[in-house]
C-alpha cells in the first residue's frame, strides 16, 4: 500500500470518528493506537511513520477537536526510544534550560503544562541533558487547573522534591522540539482548512438581496486571500515534512492562522461568535496553537540566525535546491 493510500484511509477513519461526535473520542483513538503511530511495534507502538501521524493530527484539528494527541504522541515517542511504554496518558514540556536534579528530585513550578490534570506521566526536555520523566501521581505533585482560550488544559504543575527518572538514550532536545513544531504546524493547518471550509460554505449558501454572499466582490476577494494563505502553508508543511525547515512551516502556519481566523469572523459577521455555531471551535484553537512551542517571532529570529550563519551563497544554494526539488 502506498503512503498516499494509507494516509487517505487514516483520514477517512478520523473523519468518521469525528463526525460521530462521541464524548469518548480520545478513548477510541487510544483503543486504535492512533496516538502512538510512528512508534515501532517492538517498542510498543503500531508502527507507521511520522507522516501518518501528521495526517491524524491535521484531520482531528480540521474538525475543531482538541485532544492531547500532539503531546501524548511526542512524550511516548521520547520514552519509546529508550525503553518500553507504559499505559496511561503522557504529556511533554520543553524547558529553556536544564533543571538541577543532582539529588534525583526536582522542585519547580511549571506553567502551561498540557493536559497535566489527566496525565499519568510528564516528560521534561531541556537542552544538553537527557529527558526526565515525572510520575504525576506522586504525592509531591500538585496540579492547578488552567485552561487556554480554546478551553484546553494548560495547567500549572508544582513539584516539591519530586522523584525524577532520566530517560537515557532518548532523542535530544532539538529533535523533540522539531517534532513538536512539525506536529503543531499540522494541527494549525488542519484548523485553518476547517475554518476555510466552513466559511466557504457559509458565503456560498447565505444570501443577500437574492444572491449568495460569494457574489459580492469583497467577499470573494477575502475568501481568495484565505485560500492563498492555505496554499502557502500547505507548501511549507510539505517541505518541512520531507526534511526541510520546520521553522519556516511554523512561521507560515502561524501567519495563516492569524489572517484566516480574522477573515473567517469578518465574513460570518455576528453568526461567527454564537456558541452553537462551530466556527469558534476552530478559530479559538488557531489563536491558541499558533504560538505552541515558540512564538512566530522566535521562529523568525531562529530562521534569521540560520540564514546569517549560512551566508549569501548558503542561502542561495538552499533556495535553488528547494526550487529544483519542488
Descriptive notes:
Strands 1, 2, 3, 4, 5 and 6 form a 6-stranded mixed β-sheet that branches. The chain has a two-stranded antiparallel sheet with strand order 7-8. The chain is globular. The chain contains 9 helices and 8 strands. α5 (173-205) runs antiparallel to α6 (217-241) and α6 (217-241) runs antiparallel to α7 (246-268). The longest helix is centred in the middle third of the chain and has 33 residues, at 173-205. 39% of the residues are buried. It starts with a helix and ends with a helix. Helix content is 53%, strand content 14%.
Task: Let me know the largest β-sheet.
Answer: 6 strands, mixed
- CATH topology of the largest domain: the name is Butyryl-CoA Dehydrogenase, subunit A, domain 3
Instruction: Give the name of the CATH superfamily of the largest domain.
Output: Butyryl-CoA Dehydrogenase, subunit A, domain 3
Number of helices: 9
Order of helices and strands: HHHHEEEEEEHEEHHHH
CATH architecture classification of the largest domain: Up-down Bundle
Supply Rg: 21 Å
Q: Provide mean pLDDT, rounded.
A: 92
The CATH class of the largest domain, by name, is: Mainly Alpha
Can you tell me the number of structural domains?
3
User: By helix and strand content, what is the structural category?
Assistant: alpha+beta
Amino acid at each position: 500500500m502506498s503512503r498516499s493510500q494509507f494516509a487517505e484511509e487514516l483520514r477517512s477513519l478520523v473523519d468518521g470518528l469525528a463526525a460521530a461526535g462521541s464524548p469518548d473520542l480520545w478513548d477510541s483513538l487510544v483503543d486504535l493506537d492512533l496516538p502512538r503511530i510512528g512508534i515501532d511495534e517492538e517498542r510498543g507502538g503500531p508502527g507507521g511513520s511520522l507522516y501518518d501521524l501528521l495526517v491524524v493530527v491535521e484531520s482531528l484539528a480540521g474538525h475543531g477537536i482538541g485532544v492531547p494527541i500532539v503531546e501524548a504522541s511526542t512524550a511516548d515517542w521520547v520514552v519509546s526510544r529508550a525503553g518500553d511504554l507504559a499505559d496511561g496518558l503522557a504529556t511533554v514540556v520543553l524547558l529553556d534550560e536544564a533543571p538541577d536534579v543532582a539529588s534525583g528530585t526536582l522542585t519547580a513550578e511549571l506553567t502551561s503544562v498540557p493536559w497535566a490534570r489527566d496525565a499519568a506521566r510528564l516528560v521534561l526536555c531541556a537542552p544538553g541533558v537527557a529527558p526526565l520523566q515525572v510520575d504525576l501521581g506522586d504525592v509531591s505533585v500538585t496540579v492547578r487547573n488552567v485552561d487556554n482560550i480554546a478551553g484546553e488544559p494548560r495547567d500549572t504543575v508544582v513539584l516539591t522534591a519530586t522523584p525524577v527518572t532520566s530517560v537515557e538514550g532518548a532523542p535530544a532536545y532539538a529533535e523533540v522540539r522539531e517534532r513538536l513544531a512539525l506536529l503543531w504546524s499540522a494541527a494549525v493547518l488542519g484548523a485553518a482548512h476547517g475554518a476555510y471550509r466552513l466559511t466557504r460554505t457559509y458565503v456560498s449558501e447565505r444570501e443577500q438581496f437574492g444572491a449568495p454572499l460569494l457574489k459580492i466582490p469583497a467577499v470573494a476577494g477575502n475568501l481568495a486571500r484565505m485560500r492563498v494563505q492555505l496554499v502557502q502553508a500547505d507548501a511549507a508543511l510539505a517541505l518541512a515534512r520531507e526534511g526541510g525547515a520546520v521553522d519556516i512551516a511554523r512561521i507560515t502556519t502561524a501567519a495563516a492562522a492569524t489572517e484566516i481566523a480574522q477573515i473567517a469572523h469578518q465574513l460570518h459577521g455576528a453568526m461567527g461568535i454564537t456558541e452553537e455555531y462551530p466556527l469558534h471551535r476552530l478559530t479559538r484553537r488557531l489563536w491558541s496553537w499558533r504560538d505552541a512551542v515558540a512564538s512566530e517571532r522566535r521562529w523568525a529570529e531562529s530562521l534569521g540566525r540560520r540564514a546569517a550563519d549560512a551566508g549569501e551563497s548558503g542561502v542561495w544554494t538552499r533556495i535553488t535546491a528547494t526550487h529544483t526539488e519542488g
